[in-house]
Specification:
7 helices; single chain; alpha/beta; 32% helix; globular; 275 residues
Length: 275
């Protein structure tokens, strides 16, 4: 099993997919309890949801499950949301705060570091390489980080999550034009709810790669899974009708980002742009 797959394209847009993978090595799977084996916290079918929406978009997809190691967490283990419930670099609980390992089988420091080297590091090496390649070609790279989550998770947030949750770490990870292009479209999407920098402001990936002054822009989209799944529980089936309706809006968003890139390339704020 390769930790990461790269589908290389020629667009300035790179799609990051860190949580759609379901592979768990046998040596880890045998230590998971029934809660862990359910793999409920997968970003189910997100790679399928975004497939072929933007001709030429690059996709970088992690094949391993986030219970192996979370590719969207700080490799140093620093919390993204201090003071709030969250899961760690190598999660030992699910999104409901329940243990996912048999008692005494949780990974310790040496194993966490081994997992980081085997899984987390290759994913980010591939993602960084693609962003560099794309910026070298276009003068700018736009990372659109693709996520989904159950719409009701009391351990992580109150109430029901909006359908579109856009994160730019309070406007720091991308040019304002990018944020505006996405938010204007999510707000206009009839029948859907949306929020900017709400509970999800962008994970480690968005914050780490979002360096607009260098020509690297990053934005995270966290979708409520009710927008494209038949049910947000087992078997987490893809709902074609729901997904097709949603994909119209996602295609519009990605197309807008693709069209914005030439303007950003010529923007004097980006010293990495070609003259």
């Amino acid at each position: 099993m390769q930790p990461v797959e790269v589908f290389e394209g020629d667009s300035p847009v790179v799609l990051g997919v860190p949580h759609a993978g379901t592979f768990v090595p046998d040596g880890i799977r045998s230590r998971l309890n029934d809660t862990g084996l359910k793999l409920a916290d997968t970003d189910w079918h997100v790679d399928r949801l975004y497939a072929d929406l933007l001709p030429g978009a690059t996709m970088v997809k992690a094949n391993f499950h986030r219970y192996v190691i979370d590719a969207n967490r700080d490799p140093e283990g620093v919390s993204l949301y201090p003071g709030q419930n969250t899961t760690t670099l190598c999660p030992v609980t699910d999104f409901d705060g329940r243990p996912i390992y048999h008692a005494g089988e949780e990974p310790e420091t040496d194993e966490i570091e081994a997992r980081r080297l085997a899984w987390h590091a290759p994913y980010h090496a591939a993602l960084a390489a693609e962003l560099e390649r794309v910026r070298a070609r276009h003068g700018v790279a736009i990372l659109y980080d693709c996520h989904s989550i159950r719409s009701v998770v009391p351990f992580l947030f109150d109430g029901t999550l909006p359908d579109f949750n856009t994160g730019t770490n309070n406007g720091t990870t991308c040019a304002p034009e990018i944020e505006a292009a996405v938010v204007s479209r999510t707000r206009a999407a009839k029948g859907y709810t949306s929020v900017l920098n709400g509970r999800f402001k962008g994970g480690w990936t968005t914050r780490h790669y979002g360096r607009p002054e260098e020509g690297f822009h990053a934005i995270q989209m966290e979708l409520a899974q009710k927008t494209h799944l038949t049910t947000e529980d087992t078997p987490f089936a893809y709902d074609v009708a729901k997904a097709d309706r949603l994909r119209v809006h996602l295609k519009d968003i990605l197309g807008a980002l693709d069209n914005l890139a030439p303007r950003l390339t010529n923007d004097k704020r980006h010293p990495g742009s070609p003259s």
